Each structure stands twice: as C-alpha cells, then as structure tokens.
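User: Structure please.
Assistant: Input sequence and predicted structure:
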Amino acid sequence: MKKIISILLLIVISISTISLGYDASDSYIWSIDTDAIETSSSDVEKINAQIENNNSLNLESGSAILIEQSTGQVLYSHNVHEQLRPASVTKIMSILLIMEQIDSGKLAYTDTVSCSETARSMGGSQIWLDPRETLTVDEMLKAICVVSANDCVVAMAEHIAGSEEAFVQMMNDKAKELGMNDTTFKNCHGIDEDGHVTSAYDIALMSRELLTKHPDITKYTTIWMDTLRDGKSQLVNTNKLIKTYKGITGLKTGSTSLALYNLSASATRDDLSLIAVIMKAPSTKVRFAEAQKLLDYGFSKFSFKSFGNKNDVIQSVDVNKGVKNKVDVVLEENAGTLIEKGKESQISQSIEINSNIEAPIKKGDVLR
C-alpha cells in the first residue's frame, strides 16, 4: 500500500494552479486543475491493477469488490469483471435515473404515478399495485428501495420514458457514460433475462454515481421498516445490514434462482465511505456476511484525510483592476484523500495560488 499512498500524496501536494469562478457574491470557486496533477488516469489504473485479485479474504461468492466512494479507489477485488446476472441490484441504475430526473427538476417527489397493466403483472417482489390507484414518486421510491418492488419500478420507468423499453435504453446509455463496459440491461427490474448482465465492478460504478451525485437517496435506502397506503402495506428492508451494521447507508439487494444472491452495500464511518459489492453468493447469509467482511476490512485498514468541505473559504486573494480588490477563494468540492491507517500524520497540504490575478474574472475561468 505504500506506493498507493505516495501517489495519492502527489495529488495533494502538486497543486500549482486553481480554477476560479464567480458565484454572484464576493466569493470565488477553487478547484484542482487536473493538468497540474502528476498522477494520470493510467496511473490510477495501474494502482487498481495492483490490488490483490487472489481472493485473500477467502470469499465464497463468485465475484466481489470494495471501493472507496469519494475517490473510486479499488481496495479489494475478486473476479470483478465477470459478467453475471444482477437480479434486483439492477434497480440501482433505475433509481439513479429517477434521482437524476428529480434533481434536475423534471420530476417532483409529490408527482403522482399511475400503474399500467404491464407494471401490475410483473410478479416477483412487489406491493401489488392496482391500475385504479396512484402513488407519489416519494412512495414509489420507498417501495423500490425498501422492498425492491418490481411493479413500482416499471411504473416509474413508464412514467419517465413512456415505456419500459425506452427507459432501458436510457439505462444502457447511462451505463456507457459511466464506463460500465461489462453491462447490458434488458429490463429495469432485474428479473432473469438472457443477455441481462453486469459485473461487480460496474455495480460499484453505478452505486458510487448514485451515492455521490444524489445523496438524498439514503433517506430511502436506510429505512428499515415503514408503511404505505395509510399503514395498510408494511415494508421491511431486504438489506438486513440496515439493522445491524454501524454506519450503513444502503444500498440494494438482489436474488434469483439463476443469479443467486447479490448485494451492493455502502457505509460511512469517520468521513470514510465504502461500497462493497457481492455477486453470486451461495446463500443470503453468505452475501451479508461477506459484504460485512469487505466493509470491516476497509474500515480497519484505511482512513480518509479531509482537507476541507465544499464552499469552505480557503483564503482571501488580491484582484488587480477589479471593482473589489479582494475575493474569497472557496472549495468547489469536498477535498481529501484515502490513506493507510496510522499514516495520517504523514499527509500535508499546500495550496499555491497565482499572486497576479487581474479582473475581469468570470465563472469557469482557469487562472495559471
């Protein structure tokens, strides 16, 4: 792990330029200029390639991966690119697209959604939607995240895209955008279908996208028990770690007779957020035990060193020939790095800002 630490350190200490953007106040936005980072994407691939892929934790599951959420760093891998049936873990992508619609303003939690005969007839995990009833997006999300309701996810797909087929195309387009090269979606729910495959690696990618870009989803994925229809429909989470694992934030279970038992489990402790994916576990007991084993491994070996949170003021800088001669420089995003436990004191932070900044400055400008 020493090599990983040294490379991650370069990301922190080699910053020599900043990006400033106007935010309609006296503050500007600071972010790392990627041209100034000495670690390239190929370096990250080399780091990930060095992670043990020999199943040193003696997992029974067919495939498994552990990543750190904010950086995407792979911490443990076992057959991560093997194409397998995802079962209802498929719904992570469906939920991601739903949350994108909500956060972009195209969909509201209070919008009502009707149920078609197609959605009603899905079978498997469901809440027995009736074509004569409507539920809100909030209620649909609750049913999808807590009890993996197939009828609800199809109803949402039809509501957003007009048909499940059109929604599945959106899913595959998003998978391509995220670099999910092992994945082909055939439906939005995960019921077994020939050619409907993904990998542990790809599940980690879409899980990370959901959790980092749409953190409000954890309001649903951390529900243990709840009700719908004025208390008439009881909901109990299919992810048993919600009740037993400290810091759990989700995320999604899935199982069929062909896929066996799958799980994407996420948790956060002391600013360190991890995602563990288990595929093709021989039993539901094994999938939960091995997801916990991966998370325990990550929390015992690594920590996250935070350098600041989004919108934190770093310092004030002088601006020449401007209406105002000083502006605040603030972090554009959370800043930090993954390190091996016990080596936190070896991390140092330095920020070098151009001392000759001249107006005008507009949002998106990069100053060198």
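Residues 219 and 249 are 9 Å apart (CA to CA).
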